[in-house]
């Protein structure tokens, strides 16, 4: 089932964002960024994702599921709550655990999980996505490639049932989640896995953390051309909201 924008009742959301240890994160960008820069770039993407999420008017709190101490320090400084990845059993286990932790703390929460690699995400587009998700027990936003998923949501009383990894759009659709078909939320759909993804995200305009990381240029192979012109980006004002 696909749904265009048809907002449900406004809700307050709690977000869960998973992040691998930085030493292993964004491995597909290794050749482009260079191994020395890749972990810092993964952290910068997560910082921009968390900042945009905390800047969204309908978001009450952001929990990041990670075992990485450096990322935990940087992201909690932005206002995120850190949940250790206790299951240590991959992405979907981390998401189920993070969601359970959030709901243990706030049982009646509407919860959405969001990838940590959305450096061009803007608070206003996240607001539109969450307003649309408010109308359905479970909903998801496909990634820009139309193969994966960048956000999956569950209203109070619904289990999240995350099925991320590879072609997760088809799995989330088959699981009964409603596909959100908004055409103009490009930053919310543009996860960055490859050099081409990074090129597109830069054209959309990335957040300040990623722009700063990229301003010195990238590693050995072709990355240099990516950052010739980082567009100036008008940022919505951010709120710093703890959980
Ligand atoms: N906490 C936690 N987060 C994970 C785990 N696996 C993946 N993630 C996060 O889930 C999101 C999507 O992950 P992937 O695309 O598999 O990994 P990635 O680091 O983004 O990119 P690649 O290394 O190139 O696959 C990213 O935010 C990851 O950091 C895990 O086992 N635990
Ligand atoms: C984990 C996912 O993202 P990626 O494209 O980063 O593998 C996914 O889309 O389910």
TrEMBL record:
Coiled coil: none annotated. It catalyses: phosphoenolpyruvate + GTP + H(+) = enolpyruvoyl-2-diphospho-5'-guanosine + diphosphate. Pathway: Cofactor biosynthesis; coenzyme F420 biosynthesis. It is an enzyme of class 2 (transferase). The keyword Transcription regulation does not apply. Its EC number is 2.7.7.105. The keyword Transferase applies. Pfam families: CofC. GO terms for molecular function: phospholactate guanylyltransferase activity. It comes from the Bacteria. NCBIfam families: F420_cofC (TIGR03552). HAMAP family: CofC. Belongs to the CofC family. Guanylyltransferase that catalyzes the activation of phosphoenolpyruvate (PEP) as enolpyruvoyl-2-diphospho-5'-guanosine, via the condensation of PEP with GTP. It is involved in the biosynthesis of coenzyme F420, a hydride carrier cofactor. This is Phosphoenolpyruvate guanylyltransferase. It comes from Streptomyces gossypii. The lineage of its organism: Bacteria, Bacillati, Actinomycetota, Actinomycetes, Kitasatosporales.
């Amino acid at each position: 089932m696909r749904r265009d924008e048809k907002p449900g009742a406004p809700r307050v959301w709690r977000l869960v964002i998973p992040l691998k240890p930085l030493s292993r994160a964004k491995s597909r960008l290794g050749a482009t960024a260079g191994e020395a820069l890749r972990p810092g770039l993964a952290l910068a993407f997560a910082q921009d994702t968390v900042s945009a999420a905390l800047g969204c008017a309908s978001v009450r709190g952001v929990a990041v599921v990670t075992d990485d101490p450096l990322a935990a320090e940087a992201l909690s400084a932005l206002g995120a709550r850190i949940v250790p990845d206790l299951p240590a059993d991959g992405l979907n286990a981390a998401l189920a655990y993070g969601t359970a932790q959030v709901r243990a703390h706030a049982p009646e929460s509407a919860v959405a999980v969001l990838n940590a690699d959305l450096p061009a995400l803007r608070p206003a587009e996240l607001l539109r996505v969450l307003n649309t998700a408010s109308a359905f027990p479970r909903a998801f936003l496909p990634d820009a490639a139309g193969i994966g998923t960048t956000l999956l949501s569950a209203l109070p009383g619904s289990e999240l049932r995350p099925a991320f990894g590879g072609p997760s759009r088809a799995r989330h659709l088959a699981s009964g989640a409603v596909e959100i078909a908004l055409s103009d939320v490009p930053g919310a759909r543009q996860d960055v896995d490859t050099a081409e993804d990074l090129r597109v995200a830069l054209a959309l305009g990335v957040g300040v953390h990623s722009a700063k990381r990229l301003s010195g240029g990238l590693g050995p192979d072709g990355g240099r051309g990516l950052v010739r012109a980082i567009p100036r980006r008008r940022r919505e004002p951010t709120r710093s909201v703890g959980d």
